[in-house]
Design brief:
alpha+beta
């Protein structure tokens, strides 16, 4: 899917799932439960993960009809992990009664989001999904694909593209943004990605210098010591 926006804006959008209650429709609303939560963030040298857990009544519409009591309260979770440069794995599920908040015990799905930058202000956006219910139902598969495309194309992408136009730069931190508590995960991703890019640049520069100083390079270019 082509997007007229920098790839980091797409990462921002997925890593801050509080946008769901403000951007998306009834099918995946958390009925305001997600917005005030501060996610549990986990970091490694090459990843940032965030997790939300909450209850809502009724359950998210994408799961409610597969639960024992569709109109009753259910426990939910989101768990997302970013790895460089632009890959995000997202798990989401719901359960009623006892059980762990994971894809082993919950009715849920596993999504992958990834992007390929085309330029500083254009990106190719790819996504895929798997689920642990109605796995062999082709008609339901088609409905899910259409719903995901509609959500991204009609709800997420217009906002991302509008933000790109308003920013008119890729220097997010240079704009001195006002940050909120639910920005913690995407901000950590931006900072880690910047460090990794800088490290790669320094490594590449050292490799170039070493190559230019090598005897093989001298012979190839007719230089003598």
């Amino acid at each position: 899917m082509p997007v007229k926006g920098n790839y980091e804006l797409i990462i921002d959008n997925v890593m801050d799932l509080s946008h769901i209650d403000h951007v998306h429709g009834e099918i995946i609303t958390t009925r305001g439960q997600l917005t005030p939560l501060i996610p549990n963030v986990r970091e490694t040298d090459r990843s940032v993960s965030a997790r939300w857990e909450w209850k809502q009544t009724p359950a998210m519409m994408i799961f409610a009809s597969f639960l024992p009591a569709p109109e009753a309260e259910a426990r939910h979770f989101f768990d997302i992990t970013w790895t460089p440069p632009a890959n995000i794995q997202l798990s989401v599920g719901a359960i009623q009664g006892d059980g762990a908040l994971d894809l082993e015990d919950c009715i849920g799905q596993y999504d992958l989001h990834t992007t390929t930058p085309e330029s500083e202000d254009s990106t190719h956006y790819f996504f895929a999904t798997r689920r642990n219910h109605l796995e062999e139902d082709g008609e339901y598969n088609q409905q899910k694909i259409q719903a995901m495309h509609a959500a991204f194309e009609q709800e997420d992408v217009p906002i991302i593209e509008a933000v790109q136009q308003e920013m008119d730069t890729t220097d997010f931190f240079g704009l001195n943004p006002v940050l909120m508590s639910n920005d913690v995960a995407p901000v950590k991703v931006r900072k880690l990605l910047r460090r990794l890019i800088e490290m790669e640049g320094r490594k590449g520069a050292r490799g170039l210098v070493a190559s230019l100083d090598s005897p093989r390079h001298d012979r190839r270019h007719g230089r003598r010591s």
